[in-house]
UniProtKB/TrEMBL annotation:
Example of a GO cellular component annotation carried by this entry: plasma membrane
Superkingdom assignment: Archaea
Bilayer disposition of the protein: Multi-pass membrane protein
Designated name of the protein: Protease HtpX homolog
Positions of the Peptidase M48 domain: 75-282
Protein species of origin: Halorubrum trueperi
């Protein structure tokens, strides 16, 4: 497999991390005013960051209701991921399954050696063999591109800021504390908005990159195009309650859920139509190469 580094993705990830670091510094500064000292917010956010880095995969799986499964329980799924991992020159990731009607998949983990690929039972029931391979290869491409960690960090900062926006008023206390807390909440709104826009912009590009990676791993761009259309088409058949419960994982899914708070604001993914058109162009290029 002729895997070429996507420097466009690398550049976007580096720029996103730089902006996130700047946001982190501003956020700590505002919280310093809020708490009255510098050490506490630094320790708090630093501790949360370390916990998020090491336990993000477990948190993501838990939020989806997914659990790790062994080869005895899902032998075909394990065989496919092992074969595709070898083709992608990656260590075999942990395999997880979520019991839900929503047909989707995502990858999580801090690096190639600590990655997890999760699929839903709805996805396993919806796709044929080639389509399933293509989706799994797409998730492995995210692992190979190392974009999962950047998305995790960006999502973490956004989550903390949103928490302060939502619950900061509970800590307002007397009037003397009112002004610093209002400032903290206003800055948190700004941090949340910027983090969200960064997640949205990076997520759109990384999906295109993972689509190209999946096509290189499997050699079948048409299979991924077919899988994307199948998943997108089946979303309308899933109960709205299930969609709302899982919409907050939008940035990590192969196809976004257009429901819930995040789904209503904006999609973190390019349209399925645009992704399919690019895959068809890639297929034509591979046929003439």
């Amino acid at each position: 497999m002729d895997w070429k580094t996507d420097w466009g993705l690398r550049g976007r990830m580096a720029f996103t991390m730089f902006l996130l670091f700047a946001l982190y510094v501003v956020f700590v500064g505002v919280l310093t005013v809020y708490f009255g000292n510098f050490l506490f917010p630094l320790i708090m956010l630093g501790g949360f960051s370390i916990a998020q880095y090491f336990f993000s995969d477990k948190l993501a799986l838990r939020s989806m209701g997914a659990r790790e499964v062994d080869a005895d329980e899902y032998p075909d799924l394990h065989r496919r991921i092992e074969r595709l991992s070898q083709q992608a020159d990656l260590p075999k990731p942990t395999v997880a399954v979520a019991e839900t009607q929503v047909p989707n998949a995502f990858a999580t983990g801090r690096n190639k050696k600590n990655a997890t690929v999760a699929v839903t039972t709805g996805l396993l029931r919806s796709l044929d063999a080639d389509e399933l391979d293509a989706v799994l290869a797409h998730e492995l491409a995210h692992v190979k591109n190392r974009d999962v960690m950047v998305m995790t960090i960006a999502s973490f900062l956004s989550t903390i800021a949103f928490f302060i926006v939502r619950w900061g008023w509970l800590f307002s206390g007397d009037n003397r504390q009112g002004a610093p807390i209002i400032v903290a909440i206003l800055v948190s709104i700004l941090v949340w908005a910027i983090s969200f826009l960064l997640i949205r912009a990076l997520s759109r590009y990384r999906e295109y990159s993972a689509d190209r990676g999946a096509a290189l791993i499997t050699g079948k761009p048409a299979a991924l195009a077919s899988a994307l259309m199948t998943i997108d088409g089946r979303m309308d058949r899933v109960p709205k309650e299930d969609l709302r419960q899982e919409a907050e994982m939008n940035a990590f899914f192969i196809i976004p859920i257009r429901a819930g708070f995040v789904g209503k604001i904006a999609s973190t993914h390019p349209s399925t139509e645009n992704r399919v058109e690019r895959l068809r162009e890639l297929e034509r290029e591979m046929e003439t190469a």
